[in-house]
Amino acid sequence: MHELVLPGHANALGTAFGGTVMGWVDICAAMAAQRHSRMNVVTAAIDAVDFFAPIRIGHVVSLKAMVNHVGRTSMEVGVRVESEDPLTGERVHTMSAYLTFVAIDADSRPSEVPPLALATPEERLRHAEAQARRRQRLALAGERRRLAAEHR
Ligand SMILES: CC(C)(COP(=O)(O)OP(=O)(O)OC[C@H]1O[C@@H](n2cnc3c(N)ncnc32)[C@H](O)[C@@H]1OP(=O)(O)O)[C@@H](O)C(=O)NCCC(=O)NCCS
């Protein structure tokens, strides 16, 4: 997916708002999850992200999403974001993010998704790394739920 950074996307410094970029990341990743599952999906979680470099007005944002892992009803999608100066072609890696989507049925209940076909060693490695992240993510989410319940 590509986006051109316009003044409405930017702050007073002339660089894109982080929230605007996150919105594009969410949409790009959702399309990948939807195309894998062929179902409606909701964003369940977005892992912590770091913005490495600003993206200037007039630059092109290029987002590439890939489904790394599929659970029973959830999918981890990785998104790599690069900005490109359209006048020079210079590209900079500005951020990466991991998002978890859950496929839902017509009653908004989590619904089983098809498995991922892992064809190459790179895809198998990506899948194993995603599985490790999933374990950590669910442990942290459980801890947050426990803390929130304590403060209710
Ligand atoms: C995401 C949602 C459907 C999960 O519902 P739930 O009742 O917790 O469902 P389950 O416990 O059956 O879990 C379903 C899947 O979600 C995963 N999941 C749930 N919470 C998660 C979290 N915080 N992080 C990562 N995965 C999560 C579970 O691991 C499970 O995956 P699996 O089937 O592959 O093992 C529900 O919390 C929801 O609708 N949230 C709001 C989503 C939304 O509106 N997003 C837009 C932002 S406003």
Condensed summary:
The protein has helices at residues 18-37, 121-150, and strands at 2-4, 40-46, 60-70, 74-84, 91-104. By secondary structure, it is of the alpha+beta class.
Structure report:
It contains two helices and five strands. The chain has one domain (2-150): Thiol Ester Dehydrase, Chain A (Roll). Strands 1-3-4-5-2 form a five-stranded antiparallel beta sheet. It is globular. By secondary structure, it is an alpha+beta fold. The protein binds coenzyme A. Residues 42-45, 71-74, 100, 102, 110, 137-138, 141 line the site of coenzyme A. Coenzyme A (COA) binds next to strand 2, strand 5 and helix 2.
Q: Keywords, please?
A:
152 residues; Thiol Ester Dehydrase, Chain A; single chain; 2 helices; five-stranded antiparallel beta sheet; alpha+beta; 5 strands; binds coenzyme A
